[in-house]
Design a protein that fits this description.
Layout lengths: L15 E4 L3 E5 L5 E6 L2 E4 L4 E4 L3 H18 L6 E4 L4 E5 L2 E2 L2 E8 L2 H7 L6 E11 L8 E2 L1 H6 L5 H23 L3 E15 L2 E7 L7 E5 L9 H4 L5 H11 L20
Antiparallel strand pairs: 1-2, 2-3, 3-7, 4-5, 6-7, 8-12, 9-10, 9-12, 10-11, 12-13, 12-14
Helix pairs in contact: 1-6
């Protein structure tokens, strides 16, 4: 037993730092770390629609862990350190940049509605959009002019964020294509990671079917949160399908009861 290793503190005795719609951040076991807890809450339309779907948080934790670990492996900087248990992961504490970075490969959702493009249309090239992270305002779309004028990020940081977004998009597109899934679009967040006097931009938050649009290549079946947004049902089943295809769940396992039984890593 390593006596220097920080002891795991039960959730009930930890200091809560922040609670969002789908996750809670707790004080980490050592300075510069946080514990990210995945809830079963599902929200849409800026929380106007809300439900609790048993097992969702477990699946998102495991899928996000898998993706972030793979990103770390190929040199894409992230806040992820390691998964702690079924619902929690240890992350580096970062200063979140108040922007949602949306990368679109196929017309869907608000883009299709806004520009009158048929959903499912392949875009001429990948498009990167920015939304201002503000629940009260409904996360409005903003331009680089807004971002620099209001000091949310510098021009250099915007360049770094866009470069990260392109790398993550390339990686995710290939990853999902290899298991028969089309990456339609995804949302990511970035943060400033301070190491002594040095600062770098890293990928933060989560990447899961909550933040991606994922369609089966052959059937176009939706394997993401649109199943909740559009009252299609079968959200946990769809997320489970994604986890199985990625090799996170074994084929003969079926999530039930308190949530999915996951393959030990």
């Amino acid at each position: 037993m390593d006596i220097n290793k920080p002891r795991y503190t039960p959730m009930s005795r930890r200091r809560r730092i922040y609670e969002g719609k789908a996750k809670i951040l707790y004080e980490g076991p050592e300075p510069g770390t946080l514990i990210q807890h995945f809830k079963d809450d599902a929200t849409a339309f800026n929380s106007k629609k809300h439900d609790v779907i048993e097992g969702k948080g477990v699946l998102n934790n495991r899928i996000s862990e898998y993706i972030f670990q793979r990103l770390n492996d190929i040199g894409v900087p992230t806040h992820f350190m390691r998964r702690l248990n079924m619902r929690e992961q240890l992350i580096r504490e970062v200063e979140i940049i108040p922007l949602e970075v949306v990368v679109r490969n196929v017309a869907a959702g608000s883009l299709a509605t806004r520009l009158g493009i048929e959903e499912g249309t392949q875009l001429p090239r990948s498009i990167i959009e920015f939304n201002y992270k503000n629940d009260q305002l409904g996360h409005p779309m903003v331009s680089e002019e807004h971002i620099t004028a209001f000091g949310w990020a510098t021009p250099q940081e915007i360049d770094d964020i866009m470069a990260l977004a392109i790398r993550v998009n390339d990686f995710l597109s290939g990853l999902f294509l290899g298991v028969g899934i089309r990456l339609v679009d995804f949302k990511m967040e970035c943060g400033r990671l301070w190491e002594n006097d040095l600062m770098r931009i890293v990928v933060a938050d989560e990447i899961s079917p909550d933040s991606c649009r994922l369609w089966d290549i052959k059937s176009n079946d939706k394997l993401d949160k649109d199943r909740f947004r559009r009252d299609m049902g079968g959200l946990v089943e769809a997320y489970t399908d994604v986890a199985r295809r990625l090799g996170i769940l074994s084929e003969n396992e079926r999530p039930q009861g308190a949530g999915p039984v996951l393959v030990k890593s």
